[in-house]
């Protein structure tokens, strides 16, 4: 293996960033419902993302940053990334969530690069709009293909790890496809299934 691509929410981090934000802002039930439907592939990821972020309109950026810098990381995340890098593997993170979370996590977990979405802020307040690298259901696979080309890494040298429907596009470009504590829709496309919240178990399959 030369390249490892990880989902962030519910994979490297134990939970969904947008759900943590929504709970703090008092719109948790509605956002959690949309998140679950999107991760099961029941509704379009782009539409679900826009609807969920719109519910955060008016939340302070300061509060967002505080929450994103206090997220619970998955058991074994740091150890797995360190071991992969020791073996010469480049580790990238693709998140349908937000850079506030992944940029901070990069400092803690030590992965090589992160690609995520950006919450639009005006005068320190969320406007309810979002843009960025990971807006669509196909975005992770699209970005992985570009990174493989840049690094001259093949499918057989790539592993991807995720939990939700929008991680399936990564699997199409990976030899090792790890469904980690995943939804059934992703398990059906995986060749490795791990149902225990311990990321170091990934090492048994590479």
Task: Please tell me about this protein's structure.
- It is globular and about 45 Å long.
- The mean pLDDT is 96.
- Helix 9 (184-187) links the parallel strand 6 (176-180) and strand 7.
- 39% of the residues lie in helices and 22% in strands.
- 43% of the residues are buried.
- The chain has helices at 17-25, 28-39, 45-54, 61-68, 77-86, 99-109, 139-151, 168-171, 184-187; strands at residues 3-7, 90-98, 113-122, 125-132, 158-162, 176-180, 192-194.
- Helix 1 runs antiparallel to helix 2, helix 1 (17-25) crosses helix 4 and helix 2 (28-39) packs antiparallel against helix 3.
- The chain has a 7-stranded mixed sheet, with helices on both faces.
Which tags fit this structure?
206 residues; alpha/beta; 7-stranded mixed beta sheet
Short description:
Helices cover 39% and strands 22% of the residues. It has 9 helices and 7 strands, in the order E-H-H-H-H-H-E-H-E-E-H-E-H-E-H-E.
CATH topology grouping? Rossmann fold
CATH homologous superfamily label: HAD superfamily/HAD-like
Given this structure, which CATH class is correct? Alpha Beta
- Rg for CA atoms: 16 Å
Biggest β-sheet strands, sense, barrel: 7 strands, mixed
Low-confidence stretches: none
- The average pLDDT value, as a whole number, equals 96
CATH architecture: 3-Layer(aba) Sandwich
Order of helices and strands: EHHHHHEHEEHEHEHE
Helix fraction, binned, reads 25-40%
Sheet/helix structural class: alpha/beta
Strand % is: 15-25%
Tell me the strand order in the biggest sheet: 4-3-2-1-5-6-7
Overall number of domains: 1
Number of DSSP strands? 7
Calculate the terminal CA-CA distance, rounded to whole Å.
7 Å
The shape, in one word, is: globular
Number of helices: 9
